[in-house]
Amino acid sequence: MVKIAIMGHGTVGSGVVEVLTTHADSITSRAKQEIDIKYILDLREFPDSPLADRFTKSFDDILNDPEILVVVEVMGGLHPAYDYVKSCLEAGKSVVTSNKELVAAKGAELLKIAQEKNLNFLFEASVGGGIPIIRPMSQCLAANDVVEVAGILNGTTNFILTKMINEDMSFEDALALAQKLGYAERNPAADVEGHDACRKICILASLAYGKHVYPDQVHTEGITNISLADVKYADAWGGVVKLIGEVSKTPEGKLHSIVCPMFIPRDSQLANVDDVFNGIMVRGDATGDVVFYGKGAGKLPTASAVVADVIDCVKHIQARKYLFWEDGSPDYVADYLDAEVAMYVRLKGDDPDGLCRLAEEAFGEISRLFRKDADPGEAAFLTPVLPEREIRAKLETLAQHGAQILNTIRLSDF
Ligand code: HSE
Q1: SS3 category, 76
Q2: Are 21 and 94 in the same domain?
Q3: pTM of the predicted model, to two decimals?
Q4: 274 falls within a domain
Q5: How does pLDDT run across 118-153, given as a tens digit for each residue?
Q6: For the domain that residue 236 is a member of, what is the CATH number?
Q7: What range does the domain containing 226 cover?
């Protein structure tokens, strides 16, 4: 029997307890031994829980108990999760976490400690909830050079955008519904401003290219300024607006990585990833495109990935699984303004047709988009592919001629 501790009894933590207890027999046969929850760490009281006698408010109970070989961290946030996880690894305990903030900020350091101690530090649930992505990328796709990873990595924003696209629902109503259904982070800013997706693309980028990418290296835009007008123009263009996290290698050997809303063509596999579902496309040089799809948030899907890691830890208690990336460096990620991109532009002015003629002179060519019931003075167009820095400079010129730039959204090429 292997004794484990679970730190955190919120949505994911209670899901982990539920999966471990309801699937106890099959889990025992897969792990080759019984898994016993000895401690559950939480500051709150759970007197009605069938495991009420396992709760503790003291992290030291877990840290100082030599019987505990595997610790599950599902508290979320950086502190105190980081100190607890680091202490557990240093004390010789393997750790499983769903905490993307922790892995995105401290992954290289924690993986190094795990390597030195011959332990496992596993985090399948940190990206894509119940979708297997960390293990397939680190094992099944290991023979490939990853050309690009692009994904819909946040269920809450995908749910909101789907409601806006399919039901004309307002952003606020859709966010309230996502929160009610338990998809959103405690602070929904992490979802709607793109930080959650940023953490996840950092983890995938680090894994794909073997070197840590930190969240502050990735230009991040959320969906708070996406309007129903943008959704309609995307439809007129032949696609949908999705929040995308993307990483690829530049010819200079740096990484290009960005999180932002994008126009996705309707025939792209990512265009049909709706509601709380996530979709992650990994473009390998040998495999071509491989797409992972499933529920990216929610109690049981996420708990399922956590428990799978626990089983893996228990099976490999004496043998470390290979999962590692080295520390990053400040100039590893290229300036997003140097990337070549085409953009949708929505503007407003007294003479929108005149502004579009100016845009045509500035860009050489543009394609105009039209929608029913457009606001007076509104116009929308697509730029040719140019370095983003040049597009921004040309839009600045338009602004000097009276254009109010209402929104710009990058066009995807996948
Ligand atoms: N708030 C996150 C999401 C939860 O909506 O995707 C899963 O990481």
Answers
A1: coil
A2: yes
A3: 0.97
A4: yes
A5: 999 999 999 999 999 999 999 989 999 999 999 999
A6: 3.30.360.10
A7: 134-295
